[in-house]
Amino acid sequence: MTVMDEQLKQKILAYNAQVPRYTSYPTAPHFKHMDAAGYQAWLHALDQTAAPAVSVYIHVPFCTEMCWYCGCHTTATKRYAPVEDYVTLLLREMKMVAAQLPARLAVRHVHFGGGSPSMLQPGDFARIVDTLRSLFDVAPDAEIAIEADPRGITHDRAEAYAAAGVNRASFGIQDFSPAVQAAINRVQTYDTVAKAAERLRAFGIDRLNFDLMYGLPRQTVDDAVRSAQLSMALGPQRIALFGYAHVPWMKKHMRLIRDEDLPDAAQRLDQFAAAERVMMDAGMQAVGLDHFCAAGDDMLDARHAQKLARNFQGYTTDSAPVLLGFGASSIGRLPQGFVQNAAHMTAYSDAVLGGHIPAARGCAVSAEDKLRGDIISDLMCYLGADTGDILRRHGRAAGDFDAIIAGLTDMQSEGLVDIQGRRIAVMPAARQMVRVVAARFDAYFTGAAGKHVQAA
């Protein structure tokens, strides 16, 4: 069993802090009120020159039961009627947004997230994809991905996904230990996951991503190792190894998880290191903070070509400048900034039924935001950034952030980062520190307790 070197662990723990995950910059807590008119103005400005291809995110905020670790915007329901009603709203929103565009745009990436998009009945899933294709030019080779609960992958659903063009699926596994599963209210056996993978592959959907977690209640290093080993036996193309974010002040259902059952920061680091070793020994390659890819994955090609991107779903090969978000709480990105739909179902429904685009929050992105966002993006994607080069590309003096770099010399002396001139690199063995380094370039970050989760 491999655990993290004790000396390295103590160095990382000394800098452990509550910092953002940096799936955007500025980050979502800094979004402010935004009305539909503001979003419509941004949409009107889009054309095929500014956005030769766009991406689409579709949020399905329903699950059959609530997993206690979940930080997503979702509602548990055993009834399908609310989901069916939601699909009707979703289709209306898609048509309203498309009507605001000055041209019919091409789409190369589609992502269904949630919640559990696999809760959709095959007919409703087909309606959504058919509507999308009627409104946009979905490329024949577009990536269409779905986050799926393995427990709900039936033969009919797998067939419907393939017919709709789905070519990537992400399974939420978290951990295979029965004790851990009971502690997070997410019980699913290895056989359940294996059969779900088999059903999808039978219809040609063989690009599979697995989500694993560390830092879960009652989880041990042995659990993390076993879960990584069992996952590798199923041959995924990618694995995301996320750290559990315990935020009961934000998500009330997390109060069902006992604080005393949670591993401490040192144990979390050991769990990550042990699971990482299993995957690396099996031939996976690490990407960014917490992703691992099999040989031949196009994400590795994107990393090599410096075209890797990061969004609210994690790391991606999708570098499109525009992401259109549909559904309650979904977040979109345009050249002008970020926009988020109303999160509460009543507010979302009232807006759509009233004939209004349900935009509720957003954030215009300034030139300074774009500059700092590029540095943070490079750090998160490649564990390194050449601040001087990025500053010059933005028309700024190469030394404008020298004071921030000087403030990292303590971490350099500990061997956590390497600084060569104005290039910063987080050492791979200390990759958990990348969010801490990124926060140094975040003009909005205050370090206030309770807003973010620990880096380690």
Commentary on this structure:
The chain is of the alpha/beta class and 456 residues long. The chain folds into 2 domains: 1-21 and 367-442, Arc Repressor Mutant, subunit A, CATH 1.10.10.920; 22-364, TIM Barrel (Alpha-Beta Barrel). The protein is 36% helix and 22% strand. The protein has helices spanning 6-14, 36-44, 81-99, 122-135, 155-164, 178-184, 190-202, 221-233, 265-281, 298-304, 345-353, 367-382, 387-393, 402-406, 409-413, 434-439, and strands at 18-19, 32-33, 54-60, 62-63, 75-76, 106-114, 137-148, 168-174, 207-214, 238-243, 285-287, 291-293, 309-311, 314-316, 322-326, 331-334, 337-341, 359-364, 384-386, 417-420, 423-426, 453-454. The strands form 6 sheets. The protein has a 9-stranded mixed β-sheet with strand order 11-12-10-9-8-7-6-3-15, sandwiched between helices. A 4-stranded antiparallel β-sheet has the order 2-18-17-16, with helices on one face. It has a 3-stranded antiparallel β-sheet with strand order 19-21-20. Helix 8 packs parallel to helix 9 (265-281). It is globular. It starts with 5 loop residues before the first helix and ends with a strand.
Main attributes?
456 residues; alpha/beta; 2 domains; 9-stranded mixed sheet; 4-stranded antiparallel sheet
Q: Can you summarize this structure?
A:
This protein has 456 residues and is α/β, with parallel strands linked by helices. The chain contains 16 helices and 22 strands.
